[in-house]
UniProtKB/TrEMBL annotation:
Pfam family, any one: SBP_bac_5
Source organism per UniProt: Halogeometricum pallidum JCM 14848
Example of a GO biological process term: peptide transport
Protein name: ABC transporter substrate-binding protein
Residues annotated as domain Solute-binding protein family: 266-544
Family affiliation: Belongs to the bacterial solute-binding protein 5 family.
Spans annotated as Disordered: 1-55, 522-550
Amino acid sequence: MTALAGCSDQTGGGTSEGDGESGGGGSGTEGSETESESSGSGASLPTYTYVNNSQSYNPPRHDAINLIASQFGDLGLDMEVDVLEWGTLFSRVSQEYNYSFATWHTFFVSEPVTELNNLFNSNNTDPGQGNYSGYTNEDLDKLMGNYLAEPNPDTRINQAHEIQKTLMDDVPTMPITQMPQAAIYNSNQVTNWQADLANGFNSYWTMINLEMVGDNTELKGYWPETLSTMNVLGHNDESKHVYQFNMLYDFLVQLNNNAEPDPEVSLATDWNRVDETTMEYTIRTDHSWHDGEDLTAEDVAFTYNYITENEVPLYSTQAQYLESAEVVDEQTVRINMSQPLGPFNLSVANLIPVIPKHKWEGRSNPAQANIQEPVGSGPMMFDYWEQGSEFGMTKFDEHFAPVSFEKRFWRIIPEASTVWENLINGDLNYEPFGRIDRSLDQNQSNENIGTKFQTAPTFWMFTPNERQKGLDDKQMRKALVETIPRTPIVDQILFGFPEPGSNIVSSAFGPLHTDDVTNYKESPEAARSRLKEAGYTWDDNDMLQAPSGN
């Protein structure tokens, strides 16, 4: 096995607990027995590359990936770990499909099947289209299509359960850990942390409900790397951008902390489904852009048509459901769908930012536009961007859902120890990156620190690229899942904060979630037994070989 990059002592002894399983010697012994029975009867498998973020960016995940890669090596795979800067890693996987295994923190939107359809639909397997796992299943495509076209939310519940069962049996991806939503903050400066389902404690709902303590007027956060753009139509959907643009721009529909569309805090004050492919929205008539121009129904219709006509990649998932938008009167916009979409508010209206026509109508390639000072209509306005150092916004006093702080900034701080020093002394007062690590474990009881946790729809995913030999075999994927030490990762690397992964649709989604899915042991022995039954063998060096004829 290729030497692992940067694996810390923290993960060196990671083993499954309580049942005698081992990530090292135990599986090696069993491999020797298998080897003597069926050595050398199949074709060699390729070297597999597990892409990894740098240790400074996310130390626990870096270590967990190294541990998993080591376990795969013990199983008999030829493994290498490629440590990459986060943006490069994200593009390598999500755009280029140039990887074998990937793991990162997956954030599902407020409507899970919309995201699952993007990730696993058989028609989305070309580079950049969303299905980076390469998984195809026409029966699942039909199930997801029926769900998305269904207007009745109660009917969608059983459909969602069938979709989960299929995915958890085929495991094109697997949750390693079910991550919690975490608010980490200086309790002397800010309080009243309320999360929403989609963006946790970085959500619009969180920000408009925060309360500053004493004479504090600034919300002071950080991120481990710089923003790369100010273009709301041209970013790569990384959280560091989403959390800024969600405050700079308004959306037709915003959610409250019960994951319900709430007209009190939305750009639209009312909405109505005219028929299965038509929605109408009543727009606020007393609202303006940050530059003082009136925001009108014309801006909303322009936004939806502009994104569709220009085929903006970032919103391709939403655009596939859009035919056109039109102004009915000065406060009403009608949106015509290209196909029925039952959860339209959660899948589209809650996700497309409304942009000013007078700023964008002259741009022919919006995804590539060089935006230096964005103009939106959200509760915060652009203030400054010192690329590589800091990004700041100020309060938009005229917003219908105002924030309680005057300014918000994010400072670029790669080192977790520096972040915690600043949190404790008040130079920062919240931790938007949400690191679950040793520093949190050691500092959460500090008198200056407040924490709040709740069930989240997010998880650390393990995704194999099915375009590579061997990984298109469901039994191989199941064996890899059984090899991942999910519980030791939770207990030893993440200090017990999350739960071991179990289902791609979290219980945070309420009735859409089901526990009736395939459960996988954490057992290298079970993995070897499964592979042996499927016809795999091990050579004289205990390296895994494909079944004969493959």
